[in-house]
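Tutorial handout. Part one gives the primary structure; part two gives the three-dimensional structure as tokens.
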Amino acid sequence: MKTEGLIRAASVSLVVGGCTDAFQTTQIHSECNTITSQALFAKGKSGGKGTNGKGGGMGFGSSMSKMNIEEDEPPKYTLTDKSYGDANTNLVQSQDETQLMNEFFTTYDDWKPLFQNVMTGTPLAHSLLFDTDNSMDDIWDISTMENKRPWKVLPSKPTHDTALQSLSAFLDEWQRSLLDIPIDAFVKEGSNDLHFLEEGRRTIAVTRFHVLEQEDLEKELFATCWSELAHLMSQDTSGTGSLVVLPDLGDEKGLEYVKEFVARSLIRPIQWLGRHEDWEIVAMERGSLAVRLLYKLGDIPDLGERDQSGD
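Part two.
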């Protein structure tokens, strides 16, 4: 007889397997095996430890053993380290919304063809963009390919060793944040279990990876994020996303700085363009800082209903 516990256990297993596949697409190879659902369930059943007694799995990027996680070391990440939810994605409308919008589109006037291309319906920005003289049907034309536009055609993952090392370190921390979640695999609607599924499916959705350098960082961050936003919208494949990893910003600029950039330069303009329902855009920190862009993520499937329909 099928039970809620088995359904939930199966869904956790699917997330873990998907996370492994997702990170393997970066072609960053580990010295040890990738995480397995068996190791994770051993972790959940034994009160938080894996089969090797050090966190329940091996690294997506480099060896988890290199993290020097002590057997009795408390989790580094807690339920407060969520990378999703209203606190990360909602904006309070400003009384100066029109002024902010005018300043943004004036500052990024050379980006207007891209903004016009992704705009839908008649959103707030329509009056500022619909009559632009430099609109274009194909924003990925030969001029874009030749880097004559401010937006870029970007590869799906980095190739340089330094960038790969930075990405590998981030992915190791990302994995650790998943493994630090206690799994309520056999508890109906356990909050830890649901939190793991929410974080895990966002991990699976990331299919493109970028690592930035220090030089002219905010300009490059803007260009990379908007190039990726436009690319994912042009592909229009639900449940896909991009990760943009930042270099070390020093003590003066941390997560709050990146959150402010995301709100000012990404979330608010996406709302003005009428595309906000398609996107979940967050600043996150897993060892280093990053911006995650998820397109048409959708909700967690109701596996209970699926199971009943199959009986």
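Part three, for discussion. The radius of gyration is 21 Å. The longest strand covers residues 279-286.
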